[in-house]
Specification:
alpha/beta; two-stranded antiparallel sheet; ten-stranded parallel beta sheet; 12 strands; 16 helices
């Protein structure tokens, strides 16, 4: 071809048509898809886009995607109240980013960052953040993060100043007696915590005594889990003194703490004066039937006791113990004691005790042409569909329409109770049969 030969005239672009109205998300994705599709339609040697233009298109796509993501985050920031980050390898560095987010978020109430190996630096970052007392957090789970005694000192500083947190889980960490001293000091100063889980740590006598000293001054804590530690009888003695003085605790778990009858004697002395405790768990301690008898007799001696549950479910008892317990329950019908078994009970006797309670109630309802739910509602003075577990147990023991033993009442509670500590009748069918 000669250089003087005229070139073929260029074809004119077709006039552009105005696109239909679209929302921002649709516009973004359509533009991105159109640019990619247009590039595919052109032959390899005739692409009119330069490398720079392609780079700009990709940049537009990436930037738009990021903006959409951030916009979605802004919307969710006002509605998400629970954040679950357990077992996610957050570690120390990730804690900094998490705290920065919490400083700007005023809606998050529940945060779980358990099992993330946060260590001392993570504890320091969280402690500094909590001392600012600016977030809306109410419940904080920090279980299994390799926190040692130095971290306990940091948390002492944090919770001596922060009263917003209501529930704190520090279980499955490495706190020893020195950590117990720091956390005991925290309990003496804190006026916000209502529930504290310190199970599966390494508290022994000194740490136990320090924690109990803090509990003497504390007026807000209601639930305390100290199971799977090593309190021993000296720790139980300190706990007995707490029970004599403290009127805020309603739940204590000291299961598997090497407490024998000697320690149970001290706990029982405290129970004779206590007017608030409802649940005491002593499972997996070396307690014999003699110690178990002391426990229930201490409830009998206390007319103001509110005790509802005692867990000694590894203890084998006798029929004599059961008779004593029946006498205690006559005074405190809300009380339920869980033990392993009764010595000398025949299989037939055991079967009699475990007759299906719902079948008995259904039979009564059929005879009187009412629904099962009508029967349960009649137990509640206000006729509502819900009542507390303690009130329900008391009503079931005292009612004479369908006589029940404690085993059967316990089965009913398992069927009807919610995690909130309330029995809910609405889970039952309301049709007459």
């Amino acid at each position: 071809m000669d250089n003087d030969e005229p070139l073929e005239p260029e074809t004119k672009d077709e006039p552009e048509t105005e696109p239909a109205a679209q929302n921002s998300d649709e516009t973004f994705y359509c533009e991105a898809e159109a640019s990619v599709a247009g590039e595919k339609e052109k032959p390899g040697g005739e692409s009119s886009e330069t490398d720079l233009e392609i780079e700009d298109t990709e940049k537009l796509f990436t930037t738009g995607q990021r903006e959409l993501y951030l916009e979605a985050c802004k919307l969710s920031n006002t509605s998400v109240v629970t954040l679950e980050l357990a077992d996610n390898c957050v570690m120390e560095e990730g804690t900094l980013s998490l705290v920065q987010m919490l400083q700007e978020n005023y809606y998050l109430q529940d945060l779980n960052i358990s099992n993330n190996d946060l260590g001392l630096k993570g504890a320091s970052t969280i402690s500094e953040f909590l001392q600012r007392n600016t977030s809306s957090l109410l419940n904080l789970q920090l279980s299994g993060n390799n926190f040692k005694d130095e971290a306990a000192e940091l948390f002492c500083q944090a919770f001596s100043a922060n009263y917003r947190i209501k529930t704190l889980d520090l279980s499955h960490n490495e706190f020893s007696d020195k950590g117990g001293e720091h956390l005991g000091q925290m309990l003496a100063l804190n006026i916000g915590l209502q529930s504290l889980d310190l199970s599966w740590n390494h508290f022994h006598t000194r740490g136990a005594v320090a924690l109990c000293n803090g509990l003497r001054a504390n007026v807000t804590l209601q639930k305390l889990d100290l199971s799977m530690n090593g309190f021993g009888n000296e720790g139980a003695t300190a706990l007995g003194e707490v029970l004599r003085l403290n009127n805020s605790l309603v739940y204590i778990d000291v299961s598997s703490n090497d407490i024998s009858n000697e320690g149970v004697i001290k706990i029982s002395k405290g129970l004779e004066f206590n007017e608030s405790l409802k649940v005491l768990k002593l499972f997996l301690n070396p307690v014999s039937m003699d110690g178990a008898t002391l426990l229930i007799l201490s409830i009998k001696r206390n007319p103001k006791s509110k005790m509802e549950e005692i867990d000694i479910s590894n203890v084998l008892v006798s029929e004599q113990f059961v008779k004593i317990l029946d006498g205690v329950c006559a005074i405190h019908p809300q009380l339920d004691v869980t033990y392993k078994a009764v010595q000398g009970f025949s299989a037939k006797k055991e079967l009699l005790l475990w007759t299906n309670p719902m079948k008995l109630i259904q039979s009564y309802a059929d005879q009187h042409q009412i629904t099962v739910i009508d029967f349960f509602k009649s137990l509640n003075p206000n006729g509502r569909m819900m009542m507390s577990v303690g009130d329900f147990r008391k009503a079931m023991i005292q009612q004479d329409k369908v006589p029940m033993n404690p085993y059967q009442v316990r089965e009913l509670i398992k069927k009807l109770a919610e995690k909130t500590g309330m029995v809910n009748f609405s889970v039952l069918k309301t049709e007459k049969r």
